[in-house]
Amino acid sequence: MHLVFATNNLNKLKEVQSLIPSSIQLISLKDIGCIEDVPETQNTIKGNAIQKAEYIKNHYGYDCFADDTGLEVETLNNEPGVFSARYAGPQRDANDNMNLLLNNLKDKPNRNAQFKTVVALHLNGKLETFTGICKGEITQDKKGEKGFGYDPIFMPNGYSQTFAEIELKLKNDIGHRGKAISLLVDLLNITT
Length: 192
Prior knowledge:
seven-stranded mixed β-sheet
């Protein structure tokens, strides 16, 4: 089975490829000739995932799935949430985003947070969504070189290392994206 994954984020593509069984061949946006920025203008994480999947289906005709992820920090009214990638501005710089978040949390004792991923699947004329959540806390400092985005400042509950310090397999097992993709794979295994 061939399925388009609607992302231009190579880190995300690598992470998701390690979660998908070999019977499902992922096709990137580049592979289908999609070089434009796929719109993400909704005000929810789920809305953005659906918008991206529908854009690819409507403009390119492929069955596909798309995801959107946000970091929700409890004491900041779940910010940055849907604006996680551009929290510090349109340049979408991970270090700028982390620095702003750490600054906004200065002197706040509650550092509880969760990563939320929603995957939207457009397959055989139907749209399905899957949600994965990983709870944790925001660290005081950046730690680790692995991962991407906010991984160096997010420590999942029950662990003493950030997402940027742990191995990809463990991150996939316990993480938000891994949980959502697992639900997607379960459905694909039923329908194929």
